[in-house]
């Protein structure tokens, strides 16, 4: 357990040092997105039934905050949920309340093509790291996987902690 906490701590420190600047205009992130890959130091969070197996449908902005329309797989389909990440005084850091207290960061963006984000989740006495690769066009998913793998490595995540998502997994049939 101490080793796990040390590993997570090192990953968080390395990740915080490797942050990229968000786009000048967060509005560039508005629009339709598809979750292409997920990664976590705790694979149970992103496996089927995991709390962070959540697929982004779209993003919009308001007052410097990011609003997301999410799809959460359920036994009988997918549930649509709205979440807002709130800007903080720290550049590129947002706050979110989802299965605990979360620090939300934009790691790498090319707003017309892809977005890598990560969340440091604090729930009870556990701290976990979850990363997401979002793409504008799901047919380009493979084009950005290497970028995501590199970003995950910067955050202290290993290749075996990355889960590539396919169309059937991400609730595509529930997109309007």
TL;DR?
This protein is an alpha+beta fold and 176 residues long. It is 17% helix and 43% strand. The protein has a ten-stranded antiparallel sheet, covered by helices on one side.
Features of the shown structure:
globular, 17% helix, 43% strand, 2 helices, ten-stranded antiparallel beta sheet, alpha+beta, 176 residues
Walk me through the topology.
Blueprint: H1 2-17, E1 31-32, E2 34-40, E3 55-62, E4 65-74, E5 77-87, E6 93-97, E7 101-110, E8 114-123, E9 126-135, H2 141-154, E10 162-164
Antiparallel strand pairs: 1-3, 2-9, 2-10, 3-4, 4-5, 5-6, 6-7, 7-8, 8-9
Task: Describe the structure in your own words.
It is a single chain. The protein has 176 residues and is α+β, with helices and mostly antiparallel strands. It is built from two helices and ten strands. A hairpin with a 2-residue loop joins β4 and β5. The termini are far apart.
Average pLDDT metric: 83
How far apart the termini lie comes to 44 Å
Task: Report the portion of residues in β strands.
Answer: 35-45%
Helix content: 10-25%
Low-confidence stretches: 1-19
What is the overall number of helices? 2
How big is the Rg? 15 Å
- Seen as an oligomer or otherwise, the chain set is single chain
Q: Based on helices, strands and strand pairing, what is the structural class?
A: alpha+beta
Query: What spatial order of strands do you see in the largest sheet?
Result: 1-3-4-5-6-7-8-9-2-10
Topology pattern, helix = H, strand = E: HEEEEEEEEEHE
The largest pleated sheet is described as: 10 strands, antiparallel
DSSP E strands, number: 10
Based on CA inertia axes, which overall geometry fits? globular
